[in-house]
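Lab meeting, item 3. Inverse folding demo.
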């Protein structure tokens, strides 16, 4: 069972801070290039920013933070960069999980993990188990994740769960099988690095998310910029297909 009803059917509470923020952390390579450094230097700096964002979410009472770390298309990068990214991932898990746990953060990794090395898969499994009881912040790292992959794997699992059913499937049949069924749909989506595209991130879940794009490169991003995105979110009227007047009359009509 999905914990949350979709925002396409029921209005989420208008909270002061967004409940769920999803981020495409883009621009590490360009940040490094500007400094005549190897691309990986940008990724190293990018990990520092993840730490800062987690802290910011804890301070602001944001309950869900989902970060796109590696897309299903990123395997197309030079082999050396891919393997350095994997090493960074391993290192981050080895070094950060203890602290995340102490701060009440529940860590999940969403994506097709089968393509990762056994050591990395094991570290992910351990980190998820260790932090499973935490409730302060749900931190999800999308790794080897693709929105289309997610919809397809969910469809396959949905069909397998009820093999006798012939037709009449509804959105609510699929949703419990999606990789993020444990979370409400993102309220705010942020992409750094200037590109204005979704790049196969949470396709299903972003249906009614407020989108925020900034030219700032991910390693330059900080809490001040994060707060600008939140303020921009707070100034928007989320209508979910309704008229402005309906919202002031009956919020869940
Ligand atoms: C995002 O930064 C990080 C990953 C995709 C792993 P990029 O590496 O895409 O940086 P740019 O877009 O080349 O600057
Ligand atoms: C998207 O970034 C994925 C991550 C940030 C992990 P990319 O930089 O790979 O996106 P495209 O391919 O340029 O759209
Ligand atoms: Mg990029």
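The presenter then showed the designed sequence:
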């Amino acid at each position: 069972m999905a914990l949350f009803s979709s925002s396409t059917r029921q209005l989420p509470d208008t909270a002061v801070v967004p409940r769920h923020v999803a981020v495409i952390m883009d621009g590490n390579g360009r940040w490094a290039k500007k400094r005549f450094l190897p691309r990986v230097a940008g990724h190293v700096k990018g990990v520092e920013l993840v730490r800062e964002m987690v802290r910011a979410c804890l301070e602001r009472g944001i309950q869900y933070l989902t970060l796109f770390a590696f897309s299903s298309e990123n395997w197309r990068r030079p082999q050396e960069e891919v393997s350095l990214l994997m090493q960074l991932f391993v290192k981050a898990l080895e070094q950060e999980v203890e602290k995340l746990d102490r701060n009440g953060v529940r860590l999940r990794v969403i994506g097709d993990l089968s393509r990762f090395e056994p050591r990395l898969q094991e570290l992910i499994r351990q980190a998820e188990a260790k932090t499973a009881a935490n409730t302060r912040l749900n931190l999800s790292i999308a790794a080897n994740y693709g929105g289309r992959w997610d919809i397809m794997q969910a469809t396959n699992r949905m069909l397998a769960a009820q093999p006798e059913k012939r037709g009449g499937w509804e959105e609510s049949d699929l949703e419990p099988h999606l990789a993020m069924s444990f979370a409400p749909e993102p309220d705010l989506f942020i992409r750094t690095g200037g590109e204005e595209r979704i790049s196969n991130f949470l396709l299903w879940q972003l249906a009614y998310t407020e989108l925020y794009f900034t030219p700032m490169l991910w390693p330059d991003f900080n809490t001040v910029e994060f707060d600008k995105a939140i303020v921009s979110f707070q100034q928007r009227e989320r209508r979910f297909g309704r008229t402005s007047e309906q919202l002031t009359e009956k919020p869940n009509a």
